[in-house]
Amino acid sequence: MRKKIKISSSPLNLNEVIRFIRADENGAEDYFIGTVRNATKGESVTHLFFESYEAMAIKEMEKIADRALEQFDINNIAIYHRVGELKIQEVPVIIGVGSAHRVAAFDACRFAIDTLKETVPIWKKEFLENGEVWVSAHP
Amino acid sequence: MRKKIKISSSPLNLNEVIRFIRADENGAEDYFIGTVRNATKGESVTHLFFESYEAMAIKEMEKIADRALEQFDINNIAIYHRVGELKIQEVPVIIGVGSAHRVAAFDACRFAIDTLKETVPIWKKEFLENGEVWVSAHP
Amino acid sequence: MKVLTFGITKDIIGSRSLEVPSNLALTVGELRQYVISKYPKMEKLKSLAIAVNEEYATDDKRLIESDVVALIPPVSGG
Amino acid sequence: MKVLTFGITKDIIGSRSLEVPSNLALTVGELRQYVISKYPKMEKLKSLAIAVNEEYATDDKRLIESDVVALIPPVSGG
Predict the structure, then answer these.
(1) What is the pLDDT of residue B83?
(2) What percent of chain C has pLDDT over 90?
(3) What domain range includes position A96?
(4) What are the CA-CA distances from residue D69 to residues B48, B121, D17, D31, D63 (Å)?
(5) Is residue B44 part of a domain?
(6) CB proximity C65 to A under 8 Å
(7) If you measure CA to CA, which chain D residue comes closest to B117?
(8) What is the C-alpha to C-alpha distance for residues B105 and A128, in angstroms, rounded to an integer?
(9) If you count Cβ atoms within 10 Å of the first and of the last residue's Cβ in chain A, which end, N or C, has fewer?
(10) What ranges do the domains of chain D cover?
(11) What is the dihedral of CA B109, B111, B112, B114, to 10 degrees?
């Protein structure tokens, strides 16, 4: 098994991701971890809420993993996303990639998070000190 | 404290790296983990041995961290390297970077591992099925 | 035909789904027009994609009653 | 003057350090020449840098007895 995809309303388990990625034939691993930041565009954020269209999001995440395995010289990839309410410092997303050499791991990891933000049907609502907003909804 | 450097003969503690990097003002973290691969240039590897000129290696790792903090829009960086004998799948190096946005974290992490491999006085001996070799020593 | 709503489209419509008369939305393009005409706030969105059977669909895609259809406002995961 | 050795230079010399007569190595460049002439295998290395007081040093750097000097063969960390 070369890819592992998960959407969860519980905290994401980085050790589970690492156990999946670590392998005898890997010399390099890259992990991208998104965390909830305390501010956006100069405004304080109190917390976030993530909603997904889960069945479709899983399919889109699998497409990203398949494309990464095809386009980059990597051995395995995991894409985990959390949904529900998240506080500052909590982790909405983890992407792990394993490869023989480091350049492919970096490139594939970056490709995966960039594409996830463009195609996967997951929506983030920011709760600011003065109100709330669905991120990127409006021009 | 924005940088943390360590050379250790015990297994590197990823959770310690994460605790150092995780911060309210970070929205992105990138972790590069080097692992011992079971083969090199088609030959089986049984294990590796890493030796350092520790006092100088620490200085060079600190220079890399300082340059990364100066050149990239990141908040913090950790560079950990292990020495001694390492088996397949064990971890010689961890680099962690935290930033508000992901591009800076990826760029700084890649800069740090690329530069480490060029400047830090640490040497790797590969133990192959037929003999042993100091990596990169000869043209 | 039942249309699922997510994110800001759920807030605009005030419900997790929307019932659309099938004869008013024979294609994905017609469905979008119907939704925008009924909920003008939808026109203010940066984009409004439509998924059919959990895949992004183009405007000329024909809809049938058994399709699983969903409104996909601009995504913002990660 | 005592010179520290690491990696393959330690293996070539067979010791963790090397004693060099100070008058034969007034500069970093002269030290390298001395080491290569005494241990010809050193010339086969891809590079042989020299550190003085834990910093990479250029060939024209003058050496004094109290300097901490080390041979730095090609590094391969990571």
Answers:
(1) 98
(2) 99
(3) 3-132
(4) 27, 13, 10, 10, 9
(5) yes
(6) no
(7) D77
(8) 25
(9) N
(10) 2-72
(11) 120
How far apart CA B7 and CA B4 sit, in angstroms, is 11
Q: Which CATH number goes with the domain that contains A120?
A: 3.90.1170.40
Q: What is the pLDDT of residues A101-115, one digit of tens each?
A: 999 999 999 999 999
Q: Which residues contact D61 (CB under 8 A, 6 or more apart)?
A: D27, D28, D52
C55 at A interface, C-beta within 8 A? yes
| 8 Å CB contact of D77 and B120 | yes
Which residues, including other chains, have CB under 8 Å from residue B97's CB and lie 6 or more apart?
Answer: B21, B29, B30, B31, B68, B72, B74, B76, B77, B78, B104, B105, B108, B109, B112
Instruction: Look up the ipTM and state it.
Output: 0.96
Cβ contacts below 8 Å, chain A against chain C, sum to 78
In-domain check, residue A100: yes
Across A27-58, b (16+ Cβ under 10 Å) vs e yields bbbbbbbbbbbbeeeeeebeebebbbbeebbb
Q: How many domains does chain A have?
A: 1
Question: Using one digit for the tens of pLDDT, what is the confidence trace for A122-136?
Answer: 999 999 998 999 999
A90 within domain boundaries = yes
Please report the number of interchain residue pairs, chain A to chain B, with beta-carbon separation below 8 angstroms.
85
pTM exceeding the 0.80 threshold for the entire prediction? yes
Residue range D2-72 forms a domain whose CATH class is alpha beta
